[in-house]
């Protein structure tokens, strides 16, 4: 007798679909998860970000303001604080490669 097994790719798709469905159900039921995820709409907008003091934006602060873009915390610094923290102005900072900006943000505890 011949036993037919589903190919591994089909099994992976089925398992992935089941896991995604269960994740989506738990995600939709928990307002805390949605609040903790980064808001991508702010990073894509061209309007200036709301300014906050440096001490409120540190990654050690678990209660960031609701309208803060968690992926680009440096956008919410004033120009004087930005230059004091990074020792660069904004133009010089954004001309750096992404890995270097991330390194500077890590050192400033904004990443």
From TrEMBL:
Example of a GO cellular component annotation carried by this entry: actin cytoskeleton
Segments forming a coiled coil: none
MF terms (GO), sorted A to Z: actin filament binding
SMART domains: VHP
PROSITE patterns linked: HP
UniProt-listed InterPro entries: Actin-binding_LIM, Villin_headpiece, Villin_headpiece_dom_sf
GO process terms (BP): cytoskeleton organization; lamellipodium assembly
Domain (HP): residue spans on this chain: 46-111
Annotated protein name in UniProt: HP domain-containing protein
Organism for this UniProt entry: Diploptera punctata
């Amino acid at each position: 007798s011949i036993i037919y097994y589903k190919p591994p790719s089909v099994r992976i798709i089925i398992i992935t679909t089941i896991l995604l469905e269960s994740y989506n159900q738990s995600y939709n039921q928990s307002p805390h998860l949605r609040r903790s995820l980064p808001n991508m709409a702010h990073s894509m907008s061209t309007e200036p970000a709301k300014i906050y003091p440096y001490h409120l934006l540190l990654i050690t602060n678990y209660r960031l303001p609701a309208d803060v873009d968690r992926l680009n915390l440096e956008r919410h610094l004033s120009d004087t604080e930005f230059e004091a923290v990074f020792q660069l102005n904004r133009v010089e900072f954004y001309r750096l490669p992404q890995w270097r900006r991330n390194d500077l943000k890590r050192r400033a505890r904004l990443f």
